[in-house]
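User: Could you check the structure of this?
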Amino acid sequence: MGFFDMIKELNKKNEEHKQKYREKRNKKTKVFVQLHHLEGLPNIEKGQRTSIELNPKENKLYMGKLLLGKQKENAIVLDMDKFEYVKNITVTEVYEKDKSVVGRAMIGHLLDDSDGAVVGGMSGIGTKKKTKTKKKLIIGYKSNGEEKQIMFSSKKENWEYKTLHDELKKYEPQKPEGEKKTGQIEL
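Assistant: Sure, the predicted structure tokens are below.
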């Protein structure tokens, strides 16, 4: 076997590997995550930590306070045939927080006795701006011809959150060709 034959063989194996990876990536997988419920689920309070399980074999999304064993029987179930869309939204809150005058005066005193306490205390006058970022996951579905939403939140976009979002995206109905994101259809 010559050098170029070896290169061709390696390229062929590489393409086969890529194809297997693409097939595996496009396969729908079971996902389990816990998020905080905001709205849309009966019998679950706002802020309640909620277990969510996407089960592609059963084509269902299970949601509830706890989804272990027999307690899954009490879960809220969304048949994925009713599923319409999933959205990932980032909300950033900016708020002001008072600076700690006493704490800064104590640090200043430790660094430079009485003058340091005065300077440290003065640096604590006023407010500082803080930001708080939250991720919101919105799941849209149709029930009895009516569009509805379920909303969850998370402090950060962790691996489980992103996996759930990405797997739910695979269930979104395909738009007809020619339809743009605005919902318009070109003729």
